[in-house]
Amino acid sequence: MQADPKDVFTGSYYIDGDVAAAYGAIAAGCKFLGGYPITPSTEAAEAFAKRAPEVGALFVQMEDELGSIAAVLGASCSGKKAMTITSGPGFSLMMENIGLGAAIEAPFVIINVQRGGPSTGIPTSTGQADLMQARWGSHGDYEVIALAPDSPQESFEFAIKAFNLAEKYRVPVMLMTDECVGHMTEKVVVPPASEIEIENRKYYRGPADAYLPFKRDENVVPPIAKPGDGYGLYMTGLAHDEKGYPIFNRDTSLSTTRALVDKIRLNADKIIEIEEDSLDDAEVVVISYGITSRVALKAVELARKDDIKVGALRLITVWPFPEKKIVELSKKVKGFVVPEINYGQIAFEVERCSHGNANMILVPHGGASVHIPEDIFGAIRQVAEDKKRYSAIVSYKTYLEKQVFG
Amino acid sequence: MDSMDQVVDVFSDALNKSKFDRSKVSVVSDVYLSPEAVKNLGVDFFHTTRGSAIPFATGLKLGNLGLKVVVFIGDLLTIGGNHFLHSARGNMDLVVVCLNHFVYKKVGGKERQDFHFHLSPYTSYEEPFNIPHLAKSFGAVYVARWTLLHTRELANSISEAMQKKGFSVIEVISPGVNYFLENRSVDGVSDLLEYYYKNSEVKNEVDTKKVVIEPNKKIIVGRFVDRERETFIDSYNRQLMHVIGKKFREYK
User: Fold this and answer.
1) Do both A14 and A105 map to the same domain?
2) What phi-psi label fits residue A36: left (phi over 0), alpha (psi between -120 and 50 degrees) or beta?
3) Structural domain count, chain A
4) Is A42 helix (H, G, I), strand (E, B) or coil?
5) Contact at CB, A71 and B55, closer than 8 angstroms
6) Cys bridge to A49: A19, A59, A96, B228, which one at CB 3.0-4.6 A?
7) How confident is the model at residue B121, as a pLDDT?
8) A26 interfaces chain B, CB cutoff of 8 Å
9) What structural domains and CATH numbers belong to chain B?
10) Which of B44, B47, B248 shows the shortest C-beta gap to A236?
11) Structural domain containing residue A67
12) Domain annotation covers residue A344
C-alpha cells in the first residue's frame, strides 16, 4: 500500500538525521508520539511536534520515559501507529514496558539516538553502545528488530522501514541511530507518497466469538483487533493462552514465549538486510553499522591502496543478526574487523557466528567521537598479515597494550 | 475472593446503571490486579505493568477518542505516582478507581492493632496519603471515596464518573486480601471490611483537606468534587486551531 500523500513532505531538504527520522515516521503514518525530551534525540521530537498538527498526528510530552512507552503501547493497542524517541538513559527506563509490548505483540517503534554511556555519559556526543540493550534489555525471552542508519537520508528511509516491520511482525522495532547521524545535516530527498510503500497491521475480520487474539497464522504473526470493536480483548503481560487469558503451565509458556522468538527467527531471512562490498574475493571483511560504516569506507580505501583484499559488510538490520552470512564468510576469509563505538558488542556476535573459523579483531572506541580510519586500517592489515589467532578479547588486549603502553 | 473481584462486580452494576455500550469500554489495570471477573464483563481489558496503568490508559484513550477508559489501580501513588499527578493535571479523560489497601496505613489505631500486614508484621507506623485531596489539587474533575461495602454508592460514583469528561478519581477503601493482609481467613477479611464500613461517615461535598485518614477517627467517605474542566485533547484541538488556523488538522 502507498503512503498517504498528506503525510509525506515531498521535496529536497537540508536537514539533520533527527529531523529526517521524524519526517520518515510521519510518512509511515505515525500518528502518536509519546516522548520525554533527551539529548541528542530532542530535535526529532521537536520536528514531529512542529509538523504533527498538519497531518492529524499528536505529540504528547509525557512525564517521563516510563509514561512515554506506556502511552505508546496504549495508542498502538488503540490502532494508531505509535512511537517514542529517546536516548540511552531514557531507553534504559523504557525496558520493562518494551517487554510488555513484546508480550502483547503491540507494534511500535522506538527511535534511539544513541549517545555516549554508561549512565549520563556524554549526552552531546555519539555512541553505539545500546545495541545489546536493544536486543536483551527487557527481562525474559523475546525478539526485536533493530535498524542502524548511517545518514540522514537513511534515517528517513529506515524510520518508514521500522514502522513497516513493526506492523508486519507486531514487534518492537528500534531505529538505532546515533548522535553523529542524528546531528549530521545532509541532503535528504523525500520522495512522493506514490513511491513510499507502507505496511499496515493485519486486522481480524471474523466473528467476535471465534476470535483468538494469539492464534497464529503461517508467519507466526496473529491478526490484531482494536478495543471498541466488540472483540472483548484480554491483553496481559502474563503468559497467556490463544484467547489471551493468563494461564501458567509449561505448554502455554512455551506457546507464548516461543512464539515471540519464532516470529522473528523463522522470518529472519525475510527481515535481514545487509550491504555488501567486494565480499567475493575478500581475505579480510570489515563489518560495521551506523556512522562507523562511513568511517570504515576510508579504512577500506587505504587497505585497497595497500593491495589488501578487503571487503565490507554493513549491517542495516542489526537484529536479527545475519548469522548465516557470517558463518558462510568465516569459512573463506582470514578474518573479520569490527569497528564499533563501544568496547565490544556486535564484535562478539560476529565472533560467535564465525565458529572459530576466522580471526576477529575488535576495534573499540569509547565514544565522544568516531574512529580514526587509520585505526581500522591497522586492524585490517593485522588480519591480512598476521598468522596468530585472534579473538575479540585477545584483539582488545592487544589494542589496550598499544593504546596504554605505546 | 480478592477485593479487586468485588470492585469489578460493583463496576458491572455501574455499567448497567450508566447504560454504556460495553464494547466501547476499556478497562486498564496495573499488574497485581488480574481480575477473573473482567473476562465476563464484555469490555476490552488491558493488564499492564506496575504503575503503568494510567499512562497506558492515556495512550489508549488518545489512540481512540471514542473509548471510555476505566483504570483499576493499586499502585496509584507508589510506582505510578508521577503518572497520576500528570494525568490529573492534563485532565486526561479517564476514570481511575484506586483500591487503597493501606500500604501506608496507620488507619486502625490502637483498637485495631490485631490486623497486621505481610510487609509490616509489627503494625504500621507510616502516615497515609490523603488521596482525594491530592486528586483535587492535581486537577481531577470528579473525586469520591467509598469503602468496598458501600456498594450502591460506589456503583453510583463510578457511573457518574463515567458520564463526566475528564479525570475522575474514586478511592475505594478495601483490604488487599491476597497480598497485604496477614489474616486471610474469611472472618478476618469480612471483619476488616465491616470495620472500615462501620468506621466511616458519609460527608458529601466536604472540603478534601478534612478527609485525611487518621487513627481512631472516622474514615470520611462521599463525593467530594464534581466540577468541569476542559480535557487535554479538547484543549489541544482548540488551542492549535487558534494558533495554526486552516493548516491544522484536528486530532481525532
Assistant:
1) yes
2) beta
3) 2
4) helix
5) yes
6) A59
7) 67
8) no
9) 3-247 (3.40.50.970)
10) B47
11) 5-195
12) yes
